Every structure is written in C-alpha cells, then in structure tokens.
Amino acid sequence: xxxxxxxxxxxxxxxxxxxxxxxxxxxxxxxxxxxxxxxxxxxxxxxxxxxxxxxxxxxxxxxxxxxxxxxxxxxxxxxxxxxxxxxxxxxxxxxxxxxxxxxxxxxxxxxxxxxxxxxxxxxxxxxxxxxxxxxxxxxxxxxxxxxxxxxxxxxxxxxxxxxxxxxxxxxxxxxxxxxxxxxxxxxxxxxxxxxxxxxxxxxxxxxxxxxxxxxxxxxxxxxxxxxx
Length: 228
Prior knowledge:
Residues 114-156 form the Cyclic nucleotide-binding domain. With 228 residues, the chain is of the alpha/beta class. It has helices spanning 14-24, 31-43, 54-63, 68-82, 98-106, 138-155, 157-162, 175-180, 183-195, 214-223; strands spanning 109-112, 122-127, 164-169, 201-207. Strands 1-2-3-4 form a 4-stranded mixed beta sheet. Helix 4 runs antiparallel to helix 9 (183-195) and helix 5 crosses helix 6 (138-155). The radius of gyration is 18 Å and the shape is globular. The termini are far apart.
C-alpha cells in the first residue's frame, strides 16, 4: 500500500495534512484501509442506506479522530437522527428547490473563503435578521443550513480537519424573530449537529446584538449545548 491517500480522496495542502496527523491521529498510509473497514461494516448494516463514497467516510473518520468505533456511531446517528427531524430532512431539501434558492440568494448563510494555505477553521456568517419571518419559517432556514453543513463536510477540508466557526450577525433582529424560533426543533437539530455531524464546531460568536436581547441570547447558549 502506498503512503498516500487513495486517488478518490482530495489530497490535503501540507499545512492541513500536518494538522490532521498531529490533531486527528490521521496516518496517511492507513487511510485507505480505514475507509475499507468502514465500507465492510456498512455492508453489514441493512438498516443504513448510507453513502459509501470515500470522501464522505473520511469526513467521519476525521470527525472521530480516526476511532473506527466512534466513526461507526456517528454514521449511525447521522441517519437515525435525520429520521426524527422530518421538518428539516424532507423532499424540499433539494438544491433546485425554489424556496432553498431564494433563501440562499438572500444571503442568510454566507461562507467566508479562506486562502489555500490557511489551516484555521472554516468560517460561516449567519445573518439572523435578513429574512422575512412572515414568509419563511425557522425550519426553512435550518433546512438550508443543514445543506450547507453537508456541503462543508464533503467539500471543505478546513472544516473537515480544523472544524468551523459561526458568526451570528444579529443586525435587524427583533422580538418577532425570537418568537419565531422553534426551541424544540433547535434542540433536536443541536443534538444532530453534536452527535452526528463529523465537522466540529470550534465556536460561535454573536455580533450586533441589540442591547435589549443580550441577556436572552446568553440564556439561549446555556439551553443548547451545540451553540456554546
């Protein structure tokens, strides 16, 4: 077996490869066999209609610091928890869905491009007050956010290796936005992000928070562990 990753895996830039080796226990010469072990396990899990693509499985290995058992648990949770959040994981979750495209064009969720040599976490800005709550439900925004998250885990090596940061821009947020939140849905999705997604949240920062809501947002962070 060669010392390089299989050809179907994107090679990491040297800086990120160093991080993957030192912080995630990645051994480049073992990546191919680790992915093969996950594929073999998946073939014995008839209840999981799982993706077997190498890059997909590698993201779970990195998210589990190359513990095969933890990677298996995350993959299982990835699919089982989707089943208990039908408001998000449904037939509207398509890249050509008109509502999805409209939310994307509003710039509710923005990805910040990084230099290829940057080894830091991926950065996402969420503009919480940029959509019309009379037109879109909170679950519609979370649905698009979940799609961004999957694209990130499959295509963004910074997110896969170094995790991600979220910047929550609260410009324009009013009391109506707070009432439009769906706490039960947010709690379930937070559990999904924590327990099932292989990308690791490295922090969340609130900016432009209206003075009247500062105390409320601090409380919100305490209710949902995934948002700490």
